[in-house]
Specification:
Among the domains are: about 90 residues, no CATH class; about 140 residues, 3-Layer(aba) Sandwich (Trna Endonuclease, Chain: A, domain 1), CATH 3.40.1350.10. Helices cover about 60% and strands about 15% of the residues. The chain contains 15 helices and 6 strands. A 6-stranded mixed β-sheet has the order 1-6-5-4-3-2, with helices on both faces. Helix 1 crosses helix 3.
Length: about 350
Amino acid sequence: MNGDGREVADAEDDALFGDVANLIEGARQRAAVAVNSELVRLYWSVGKRVREEVLGGERAAYGQRVVKTLAARLTERYGRGWSRRNLEKMVHFAEWVPDFEICETLSPKLSWSHFFELLTVSERPKRDFYAAFAAHERWSVRTLRAKVAGRLYERTITARGSADGLKAELATLSARGTVEPTLAFRDPYVLDFLDLPSAHSEADLEHAILDEMQRFLLELGVGFAFVERQKRMTVDGRDYRLDLLLYHITMRCYVALELKSRPLEPGDYGQVTLYLRWLDAHQRHAGGAPPIGLILCTEKGPEQVALLGLDSGEVRVAQYVVDEVRGAFERIVARAKALEA
C-alpha cells in the first residue's frame, strides 16, 4: 500500500473508532441516567412506604425503633447505603415530593446526591426553587452546593421585590423550560472573584469582567452569552458605546449591560433606554423578544428605583459587590426575609 493509500486507511480507521466510541459513550450516558432514575424511584418508594406504614397513625409511637431495626437488617443484607440516616432522608424525600409523577419528572435530571443535598435546605419554598433551577440548568451537585452557599434564592427574591408569583414561575420553568426576567436577574451580583479594589473605575470593572468572562456569566446565571464589548450605536450622527452586549438564550433577547462604578443616577435610565430603542430597531432578530437593559452599580436607593420603575420592566438595576461579601450576604438575607414575610 502506498503512502496515500495508508493515509486513507488510517483516516477510515479513525472515523470508525470515533463512531464506535460515540456509540459507547452514548450508551453509557443513557445507562447512567436510567440507573439514576431507578434509584431515585426506589428511594422515593421506600421513603413513602416507611412514612405511611411505619411512622403514620397509631404506629408513630414506636416508629423510630422500627426504622432503626429496619436499617440494621437492610444494612446487613445490602450494605451501608441503607443506614438509619439514609432511611430518614428517604422519608423526608417522600414528604417533600408526595406525588410520584413529580418524582418521575425530576428523576432523569437530578441524582439522589442532588436530592440528598436539597434536603439539607430546611425551608420548602427555597428547596423548590433550587430543585427547579438545578433540573433546568443541569447543575452538578457541586454547583448546587455553591448556589445555596451563594444565597441565590435570597438574591432572586431581593431582585424581584417580593416572593409573589414565584411558585407559578417555577412551575412554568419546570414544565416549559422558559424563564421570566424576574427569575433571570438577581440583586446584588457578587463579583469578588474579579479581585477589584474598593476604589475602581468603570474601565477597571469592564476589563476585569472580560478577563473573567466565564465566571461572570456563571454569576449572572445560565442562559447568558457574551456578544460584544463597547457596542457602537450611532444616533443622529453621534456615536454611543454600550459597555457589554449579552444575549439570553432562553428569553431570546439581547441584554444591554451598562457598568457604573458609582451609585445609580437618574440619567442612567435614559442612557440605557436609548440603547434598548436602538437595539430594537437595528439588532433585534425576527421572532426575538424585545431587548432588556441591566444597570450594574455600587448602590441604589429604593425610592429612586421605584420612581423610575427599575424594579420591573425593560430596564433593571442591580448592585454589585467586590468585597465585604459576608456583610453583603447578611443584608441580602435580612431583606429577602422581610420581603417574604
